[in-house]
Design goal:
The protein is mainly beta and about 120 residues long. Helices cover about 0% and strands about 60% of the residues. The strands form 2 sheets. Strands 2, 4, 5, 6, 9, 10 and 11 form a 7-stranded mixed sheet that branches. About 30% of the residues are buried.
Length: about 120
Amino acid sequence: QVQLVESGGGLVQPGGSLRLSCAASGRIFSIRMMAWYRQAPGNQRELVAHITSGGSTNYVDSVKGRFTISRDNANNTVYLQMNSLKPEDTAVYYCNAELLSTYWGRYWGQGTQVTVSS
């Protein structure tokens, strides 16, 4: 059984920062890619950032220069440092991983709420 558990969400004022964490646990042999998605009310889930096992990263244009994704391969953990937060960043943030357990598959965390408001 594989689990992805996110933490670090909360309420922050515009211009503030938050750091999200996501730890993968269970029967894991390899993690190819880890990513953060977000979904605001009434919107589709969108890819925010992803990082490969080799450290290559990609970001949606709206967060470039403000968000940084990183990972700790030894501990199967991915982070999202979010700076200069804007109200439009408000959403539920989900961790996603493409990993090898019994088979290669995509796994999701339960989500963590990020609210940017004064």
